[in-house]
Amino acid sequence: MVTYTHSWKPRNQDAVIATSRMITAIDGCSPISSADGSAERVSDFAATFAENLAAAVSDPDDVRGEIATALRTTQNRCGDHGVTATLALAVWDAENLAVAVIGDSPVVIELAGEHTAVIITDPAYDGHEDAALTRVREALDQGLPASRAYTSARPLLAADRAARNTRGGRWIISDFTPAEDIAARITVRTFPTGSVSRVSACTDGMSRIVELLGALTYPELFDRVQAGAGDELVSIIDELEDDDPEGARLPRFSRRDDMSAAIGVPGTT
Q1: DSSP letter string over the chain?
Q2: Whole-angstrom Cα distance, residue 64 to residue 12?
Q3: InterPro entries, per this entry (predicted)?
Q4: pLDDT tens for each residue of 55-96
Q5: CA distance 41 to 121
Q6: By mean pLDDT, which of 72-81, 159-168, 229-238 is the weakest?
Q7: Which domains does the chain carry?
Q8: 53 with 65: CB under 8 angstroms?
Q9: Which of 103, 133, 137 is nearest to 253 (CA)?
Q10: What is the pTM of this model?
Q11: Neighbours of 73 (CB within 10 A)
Q12: DSSP strand pairing (196-202 vs 107-111)
């Protein structure tokens, strides 16, 4: 099992853990009205949640229940500060492998004997930034400077985030919503363990190398991580940010986002 994480921030707000039977990648998110200390709270929440998942999650047949247990423990320890997070997780035993996702962090399944990858995402988050990114592109096409183009899209993002974990809004891991309510909305898929050659979870800071840049396929991306070549992936993002610092060429709502991945090979330890 292999993990990799990199942050350009003083405190990494991602968290990754891999055990002999479970992998997870968590992307913490600050509240809309961030106050002093919010970065530390987000980092602590993500790290604590990862540790509690490693302790609680072992049964692919009860993955929602075990995630709820880990989240409840995390909420009790960390308190309610408006922190949210995505979750990408896989857990397996000899028979079954379960994938659980909520938010925009994917899990990628590579099937034995096949050359294609199965990308598992939370359907509620498919294209969730499209409307805001369209507004940015339209503003850029009209000749607005990048700073104003992004400002014009902020109300859409703020409204989307404010509606999280409410009726009609998208759901996500949080420190303020009952754990059972969140767990009920997690997307879960199950595969025969023997059919999976490799399973990987990553945050969107890592997945943008594939989804935004098209620089690598997911199997190529995780080959680099597994080979200990994470610094090469950081260089890909650095090149993007240096060449397009304002996000005018490739619109995106974060710069040098924390990037993390966890990789598991079922049947090995």
Answers
A1: -EEEEE-SSSS--EEEEE-SSEEEEEEEE--SS--TTHHHHHHHHHHHHHHHHHHH---GGGHHHHHHHHHHHHHHHH--SS-EEEEEEEEE-SSEEEEEEESS--EEEEETT-S-EEEE--GGGTTTTHHHHHHHHHHHHTT--HHHHHHHHHHHHHHHHHTTTSTTSPP-EESSS-HHHHHTT-EEEEEEGGGEEEEEEE-HHHHHHHHTS--S-HHHHHHHHHTT-HHHHHHHHHHHHHH-TTSSSS--S-SS--EEEEEE-TT--
A2: 26
A3: PPM-type-like_dom_sf (IPR036457)
A4: 999 999 999 999 999 999 999 999 999 899 999 999 999 999
A5: 26
A6: 159-168
A7: 2-125+170-244+258-264 (3.60.40.10), 129-169 (no CATH)
A8: no
A9: 133
A10: 0.93
A11: 18
A12: antiparallel
In this model, does residue 37 exceed pLDDT 60? no
Tell me the pLDDT of the chain averaged across its residues. Answer: 94
* Surface-to-core class of residue 31, CB atoms within 10 Å of its CB (0-12 exposed, 13-18 middle, 19+ buried): middle
Say what percent of the chain tops pLDDT 70.
97
Give me Rg for the CA atoms of the chain.
18
Tokens of 92: 């397996």
Please give the order of strands across the beta sheet that includes 107-111.
2-6, 259-264, 196-202, 107-111, 117-120
Tokens 């400002």 correspond to 151
pLDDT for 33 equals 53
42-56 per-position pLDDT tens digit: 999 999 999 999 999
Q: How far apart are CA 226 and CA 224, in angstroms?
A: 5
pLDDT, one tens digit per residue, over 177-196 is 999 999 999 999 999 999 99
